[in-house]
Specification:
It is a single chain. It is built from four helices and four strands. It has about 110 residues and is of the alpha/beta class.
Protein backbone atom coordinates (compact mmCIF):
# COMPACT_ATOMS: atom_id res chain seq x y z
CA UNK A 1 0.00 0.00 0.00
CA UNK A 2 2.48 2.48 -1.18
CA UNK A 3 1.75 6.08 -0.28
CA UNK A 4 -0.91 5.22 2.28
CA UNK A 5 0.09 6.16 5.82
CA UNK A 6 -1.47 5.30 9.13
CA UNK A 7 -3.43 8.55 9.11
CA UNK A 8 -4.98 7.70 5.74
CA UNK A 9 -5.95 4.21 6.85
CA UNK A 10 -7.39 5.51 10.11
CA UNK A 11 -9.65 7.91 8.21
CA UNK A 12 -11.58 4.91 6.94
CA UNK A 13 -12.05 3.56 10.48
CA UNK A 14 -13.98 4.97 13.40
CA UNK A 15 -11.61 4.39 16.29
CA UNK A 16 -12.76 4.60 19.92
CA UNK A 17 -10.48 3.97 22.88
CA UNK A 18 -13.02 2.17 25.05
CA UNK A 19 -10.92 1.96 28.20
CA UNK A 20 -8.19 4.36 29.23
CA UNK A 21 -7.03 6.21 32.32
CA UNK A 22 -5.79 9.52 30.96
CA UNK A 23 -6.50 11.08 34.37
CA UNK A 24 -3.83 8.92 36.04
CA UNK A 25 -1.40 11.23 37.82
CA UNK A 26 1.53 9.27 36.38
CA UNK A 27 0.67 10.48 32.88
CA UNK A 28 -1.34 13.65 33.58
CA UNK A 29 1.47 15.91 32.37
CA UNK A 30 1.57 14.24 28.96
CA UNK A 31 -2.17 13.51 28.59
CA UNK A 32 -2.79 16.51 26.27
CA UNK A 33 -0.02 15.27 23.97
CA UNK A 34 -1.38 11.71 24.06
CA UNK A 35 -4.87 12.95 23.21
CA UNK A 36 -3.63 15.13 20.36
CA UNK A 37 -1.50 12.31 18.93
CA UNK A 38 -4.36 9.81 19.14
CA UNK A 39 -6.76 12.27 17.50
CA UNK A 40 -4.23 12.83 14.71
CA UNK A 41 -4.09 9.05 14.19
CA UNK A 42 -7.85 8.74 13.87
CA UNK A 43 -9.08 8.02 17.39
CA UNK A 44 -12.36 9.90 17.67
CA UNK A 45 -13.44 9.20 21.25
CA UNK A 46 -11.91 8.13 24.55
CA UNK A 47 -13.74 6.52 27.47
CA UNK A 48 -11.73 7.91 30.38
CA UNK A 49 -12.44 5.66 33.34
CA UNK A 50 -12.23 7.00 36.87
CA UNK A 51 -11.10 4.49 39.45
CA UNK A 52 -12.05 6.19 42.73
CA UNK A 53 -13.81 9.21 44.16
CA UNK A 54 -10.41 10.89 44.31
CA UNK A 55 -10.13 11.15 40.52
CA UNK A 56 -13.74 11.75 39.48
CA UNK A 57 -13.24 15.52 39.44
CA UNK A 58 -10.28 15.11 37.07
CA UNK A 59 -12.29 12.81 34.79
CA UNK A 60 -15.11 15.38 34.70
CA UNK A 61 -12.67 18.22 34.03
CA UNK A 62 -11.11 16.29 31.13
CA UNK A 63 -14.56 15.64 29.68
CA UNK A 64 -15.38 19.34 29.96
CA UNK A 65 -12.10 20.31 28.29
CA UNK A 66 -11.99 17.72 25.51
CA UNK A 67 -15.16 17.00 23.48
CA UNK A 68 -13.65 13.67 22.43
CA UNK A 69 -13.60 12.39 26.03
CA UNK A 70 -16.53 10.49 27.50
CA UNK A 71 -16.18 10.63 31.29
CA UNK A 72 -16.78 7.35 33.10
CA UNK A 73 -17.16 7.38 36.87
CA UNK A 74 -16.78 4.28 38.97
CA UNK A 75 -14.94 2.44 41.69
CA UNK A 76 -12.24 0.04 40.62
CA UNK A 77 -12.17 -3.03 42.89
CA UNK A 78 -8.65 -2.11 44.00
CA UNK A 79 -9.95 1.15 45.48
CA UNK A 80 -13.34 0.15 46.89
CA UNK A 81 -12.00 0.06 50.46
CA UNK A 82 -11.00 3.73 50.14
CA UNK A 83 -14.49 4.97 49.27
CA UNK A 84 -16.19 7.45 51.56
CA UNK A 85 -19.54 6.82 53.24
CA UNK A 86 -20.97 9.37 50.77
CA UNK A 87 -19.54 7.88 47.58
CA UNK A 88 -22.90 6.91 46.09
CA UNK A 89 -24.35 10.39 46.60
CA UNK A 90 -21.17 11.84 45.09
CA UNK A 91 -21.47 9.49 42.10
CA UNK A 92 -25.06 10.60 41.49
CA UNK A 93 -23.96 14.25 41.67
CA UNK A 94 -21.19 13.70 39.11
CA UNK A 95 -23.60 11.85 36.80
CA UNK A 96 -26.19 14.59 37.17
CA UNK A 97 -23.61 17.28 36.37
CA UNK A 98 -22.22 15.28 33.44
CA UNK A 99 -25.14 14.01 31.29
CA UNK A 100 -22.87 12.35 28.69
CA UNK A 101 -21.03 10.34 31.35
CA UNK A 102 -21.09 6.60 31.91
CA UNK A 103 -20.72 4.45 34.98
CA UNK A 104 -17.85 2.02 35.16
CA UNK A 105 -17.31 -0.50 37.90
CA UNK A 106 -18.96 0.10 41.22
CA UNK A 107 -20.11 -1.87 44.20
CA UNK A 108 -23.06 -0.90 46.31
Amino acid sequence: MSGVGVGRQAEALRLFDAHCHLQDRRIAAVAPHLIRTALDCGVQRFAVNGVSEADWHIVKQMGDEYPSIIPCFGLHPWFVAERSPYWFRSLKEFLSATPAASVGEWLK
